[in-house]
Write the structure tokens for this entry.
Amino acid sequence: MADASGAGRPAPITAPLSEPFWEGTRNGELRLQRCGSCSRFVWTPQYACPDCLSEDYEWVACSGRGVVYSYTVVHRSIDPSRFEAPYVLAVVQLEEGPHLLTNIVGCEPEAVQVDMPVEVRFERIDDEFTVYPFAPREVQE
Amino acid sequence: MRALRDVAIVGVSTTEQTRRSEGRHGLSYALEALKMALDDAGLAKRDIQGLYPMMDGWPLAGPGQLGGNYRSTNWAHQLGIPIRWFTGAVNSGGGTGVSAILDAAAAIGAGYIDTAAIVLGFASSNPSDPRTASWTSQPFQFNEWTGTYTAAQFALAARRHMHAYGTTREQLARVSSTIRNYGHVNPDAVMYGRGPYSVQDVLDAPMVADPLSRLMCAQVNDGGAAMVITSLERARDLKKPAVRVLGGADQVCYPAYAELPLLEHPLGGAFSRDWVDDGFAMSGLTREDVDVVQLYDGFASWIVMQWETLGFCEVGEGGAFVESGVMELGGRYPTCTDGGCHSFSHMGAPALLRPIEAVRQLRGEVRDDCPGSSKGEHTYDPARCRAARDPQVALAVSMGPPTGGGNLALLARD
């Protein structure tokens, strides 16, 4: 579940379309839109499926697991009062298919590798918002 | 409809480019640049029928001024002329560069208008702020909490490219040293005389976002630029040699910065690159015909990827391609010959600076440290020269970040 380590991160400015997503993170779920017509998982939230253009979708909790598609160790912080350098920005490809932008936490920056297995580790910003960095995960052989 | 007409660039300008303007508004730079480009062409403001503006905000806010920078009525009012054809930042142009040239060429070629101006002015940079261009770090709800910003977004694509294809930091550094050394001998460059830079200098510079060092990143500047485009028929009566717009192409796939920098389409599969071949085909040219190249050099890694996208080398071979010295003076494709965004200027949305430099190369109007530079006489010694040797065809590209979009224009001496 979410801990309080997200305090200090900027809270997102949301739109009605994405409210179910933020409700999910608040409740410990990483939700994606799944198209009701072609079953494709969609990220970021869209009004209609970019593949089949169906407006019929449902929000479903995804596995929260994926692998690092790419990463960068950021040495020049965008805002040192909020983000202490070095920190790791990453693109994670989820098991369900979509890529998302996130941070890698829970390990030294030097330990991060492309293709490294990771899982979501929620961080609570405040009562309203919980964000979704990822951390290394053990893979069962 | 009238038959299609040929189109030419007849006026170009860049104002002073600077690290930090003092007390000027972007509109001030835009107006100065517009007047300079009209003077370069020998035309007056009343000749302009189409307008493509890009600025960092309109000086008046309030009712009726909504989205001021992009409202045709505001511009028509300020310029005191009727405007018939108007587009704000177009298509993949981000900064109204190559995309605007293609749109103007289409409108002029089809006969809707005779003359168009592209005009840019920026005066809000803050070099101490790592967010560089403010529009790349708007509060996108899925990004802002991660601490991302422009250089970091490009670094993500760079790291993936290194992983997938074995691209090295040395190859990235070669790009930046080459481009910065052009700027070192360009008296108009913000970074004039600040080099020369070795590959090792670039590698040793402080890291911004791994693998990108500070010297692999563009600057952040203020300034203005403009271009005037008209029919080839009219261009031949004007004072400067016409530079023909032979053709080009443009595409977008998804929003930069709000979405991820990926090397494949979010729906799966490679990004389509047929737009590149289409752009060459409609111009009646091949890559072999190109003499000088201007690419968007916001970050070294993006140059490597653009060569691949543009089909000058295979995907994955961009690193070896740049390492061969192809971009240098005397190389097969001298590239970013004004010093690019690394060294000449990255004012706001700088996309128009690439085709402007292409025009200057084709006209033989290249200012550098050669003793006869003002008379068009060049030594072709890279230590003081940045002029391509008698170029006939230039490729100008102003594509933004790695999101599958891109554009190109092929320009040629008449």
User: Anything to note?
Assistant: The first strand of chain B starts at residue 7 and ends at 14.
